[in-house]
Model the fold of this input.
Amino acid sequence: MHSEIFDSVLIENFRLRAVKKEKSNIDFLLMHACDDLAERLATVKRSFRYAIDLHSHTGLSAKVMKQSGKVMAIHRIESLSELLKKEYPSQIQPRETPFLEPNRADLIVSLLSLHLSNNILSLLLQIQQGLEEDGLFLAVMCGQGTLKELRASMIQAESEIYGGVNPRIAPFSTLSDAGILLQKAGFILPVTDIENVIVRYNSAFDLMDDLRAMGMQNALIKRSRQPVSRRFFMRTDAIYKERFRDTDKRIRATFAFIWMAGWAPLRIKLDSDHTYKGKTQARLL
Done:
């Protein structure tokens, strides 16, 4: 039985709260991912009939697909109605177990969502089945190394003050994990790469404020339910500045973006004369 890591209900509550508060320019990480998506779509030498924008938070990724000129129709799937607008056909589906019509889409895109799943492999299997043969899957998720500076600072502060530590930042997949997951899910020609996006802040408090505004608070099932003192956060900020401050006295925060790409395999179909009648496998060029 697969053990759960995240409280999925709490994640949705955090995301809903973030949507309602709408902090200005808080989608800068998503914007960065969308710029990468545009570049990656530009390298694919084919067009797409029907694409699904799967749990990519806002309509930014759908806009990128439309502006690429390579996607005819786009269908958005989100877990919150507040994240959906009327410019695209859309529906509400849970993040962990979305229903994707088998062999329907020839492109599925998911930005900065997979790392919030309790079972990434199960989700990838559903995505692969939702693609028609020779369909393309493109996704980016946060990987190992994300918020490593905040994690280290919190661990040291909590150990000093309380004599022990509790999980406060989610575990993230490695680059090799991502490749293995794509292969296990049955994708052909899986490709993964990683980019470390560095964001700089005046203090750990500013970073944590942005994380709240993104709906990225601690939703781990094994999180501590005990409140912590302001002393803990003050010590976290002090350690952060001691260990991860640059020469201009600003601190850095790492977000490790793991990109994943894979093609749906050919579905074996034989005609009455037992000859293959499917597509020829495409290539990402």
In short: DSSP finds eight helices and seven strands in the chain.
